[in-house]
Specification:
alpha/beta; Rossmann fold; five-stranded parallel beta sheet; 14 helices; 51% helix; 8% strand; globular; Ester_Hydrolysis_Enzymes
C-alpha cells in the first residue's frame, strides 16, 4: 500500500497495518500523530495509508466559488456524513443478521465495541454463548435491538453500556433511565440480567470518568433494589477512576490481558458456575 513510513524515516516496504503490528504496544494515536507530523512531506503514499485520499477527493468536488471558511465547513460536513453513514450501515446490517440468523443461547453478551471485540465463545467454549456487542452503540440503540437478545431465549444477559452515551453528552439520568428499561424487559421475560460496570477510560478521554463513576454508583443502587448482580470490573481494570494503561492502547478499548481479567471475574457467575 505505502512505502517509506517507518517512524525513523528509513525506507520500509510495508503497509501501515503490518507496521503497527511491529510497534506493539504503542498507542495508535501516538504513532499516527508522530507519523503524520514527521513524514507527511517525505512519503507520497501517506495519504492512502491514513485515509486522506477520501478527504482530498471530497475537497476536490467542492465548489470553487466558496471561500476557504465555507469550503472547510462543507468538507467537515461531507466527511461527517460519510463516517456516520458507514456506522449506521454497519449497525443496521449487523442487527439484521442477528435477527435473521440468531439461534438459542444460554448466555448473551450485550453492549458496544468493548463487548463486541471480546472473543467470548473462545473464552467460554463450554457454554452456548452469543455475542451481541455492537461497536459505537448507545443505550438508545441497544433498546432498539434488545429483541435480538430475547429471541435467543437466554438464561442470562451480561450487559455493559453507557460510555458512548456519555461521550455524546447524555446525562447520567438519561442513561440510567434507558438502562432500567432494559433491565425491566429482561426480567419480564424471566432472563437474569448481570450488569457489568461501565469502564473508566484512560487519560485521553479522562473528562468522562466523573460521569462514569456516578453512573456506576447509580447502577449499583438500581441492581441492589432489583436483586440483580452488579460486577465492578473497574476494581481490577482501573486505578483512581482511570483505566490503567496496561489494559488498553487507545484509552478506551481493551487488550487481551484485560479480557483475561474480565473472563476470570465473570466466570463464577456464568449460569451460577453450572458449566
Amino acid at each position: 500500500m505505502s512505502q517509506n513510513i517507518r517512524p525513523d524515516g528509513q525506507d520500509a516496504d510495508t503497509d501501515l497495518i503490518t507496521l503497527c503490528h511491529t510497534l506493539q504496544p504503542v498507542s495508535p494515536y501516538l504513532f499516527l500523530d508522530n507519523l503524520f507530523r514527521n513524514l507527511a512531506s517525505q512519503n507520497p503514499d501517506l495519504s492512502k495509508a491514513l485515509f486522506l485520499s477520501d478527504a482530498y477527493s471530497t475537497l476536490a468536488q467542492l465548489p470553487d466559488t466558496a471561500n476557504d471558511a465555507e469550503r472547510l465547513t462543507m468538507l467537515c460536513d461531507q466527511l461527517c456524513v460519510k463516517q456516520t453513514a458507514g456506522f449506521i450501515s454497519r449497525s443496521l446490517q449487523m442487527t439484521d443478521c442477528h435477527r435473521t440468523f440468531g439461534s438459542q443461547a444460554d448466555i448473551v453478551m450485550f453492549g458496544d465495541s468493548i463487548t463486541e471485540w471480546g472473543v467470548w465463545s473462545e473464552m467460554f467454549p463450554g457454554i452456548k454463548l452469543a455475542n451481541r456487542g455492537l461497536a459505537g452503540d448507545t443505550t438508545r440503540g441497544m433498546l432498539c435491538r434488545i429483541d435480538t437478545t430475547l429471541q435467543l431465549q437466554p438464561k442470562q444477559v451480561f450487559v455493559m453500556a453507557g460510555i458512548n452515551d456519555l461521550a455524546q453528552d447524555e446525562t447520567v439520568d438519561a442513561v440510567l433511565g434507558r438502562y432500567e428499561e432494559m433491565l425491566g424487559i429482561w426480567q419480564q421475560h424471566a432472563i437474569e440480567p448481570v450488569v457489568q460496570s461501565t469502564l473508566h477510560v484512560g487519560s485521553r478521554l479522562a473528562s468522562l470518568n466523573s460521569s462514569v463513576t456516578l453512573l456506576n454508583q447509580r447502577l449499583r443502587q438500581t441492581c441492589r433494589a432489583r436483586g440483580i448482580p452488579f460486577i465492578d470490573l473497574n476494581a481490577v481494570l482501573s486505578d483512581r477512576q482511570q483505566l490503567l494503561d496496561e489494559y488498553s492502547r487507545d484509552d478506551l478499548h481493551l487488550n487481551a490481558v484485560a479480557y483475561q481479567k474480565w473472563q476470570q471475574i465473570i466466570e463464577p457467575l456464568l449460569l451460577k458456575s453450572g458449566r
